[in-house]
Amino acid sequence: MNSLTRRFFSNAIKSTNIKIPCTSNLLDTEKHAITNIVSSRPQISPSTINALQQMQKMYPYIYAKVYINNFPYTVTKGDIIVSGYLRDYNVGDLIRFDTVSEIGTRDATLKGNKFIDPNYYFITGVVLSQTFGKKIRCRIGYKRLLKTIKKKEAQPKITMIRIRESVSQLRIVHHDYHLLSFCLSILKIPNFLNGIQL
User: How far apart are CA 92 and CA 178, in angstroms?
Assistant: First the structure.
C-alpha cells in the first residue's frame, strides 16, 4: 500500500458517519452535477482516481439498512428478506427501496439524516412468494381456579423478497470534496465516470 492510498484511507475513515441533508431541488443530470463539482473544486489527480478504484476493488460487497413497514433489515446483494405481508405486491413484482438509513462497508459507513436521499443509491428486490409463516401459539386466557390456559394457533402471512440489485448507480449532487471521494470509494462508480478525470 503506497502513501497515497494510506492517506486516502485515513481521509475516508475520518469522513465516516456523514449526515447528508435531504435536498429537494436536485440536479437534473449526472453529467451536469459532475461539471459543477469540477468547476467548484480543484481537480483530482489520476493517482487519486486509481486509489478510489483500488478501494472499490477491496470492498466489492456493500451492505445497506433498508426499512420495510418501519422495521430495519441489513441486506446485501442476493439476500432474502422475510417480512410482513405486503398486500400491494404480487409474485414477480420489482420493488425499489427508497427508505435506507445506512450504506457502507466494514470500515466505512454513510449515514443519512434519518434517511439517505434516494438519488445516492439504487436498491431493488423481487417478490419471491406470498405465503404463510410458521404456526404461532397465542395465549388467550388463564383460569386461576381451574389452573388451565386457553391457547390458540395462528399462522401469519409473510412476504419473501430477494435483493436483486445493490447500490448500482450513484448521482453526485454534493459539492464537498471529502464526501465526493468517500462516495466514489464505497459505492460502485457509474460508467460515465470511467473516462472523466475529476
Answer: 40
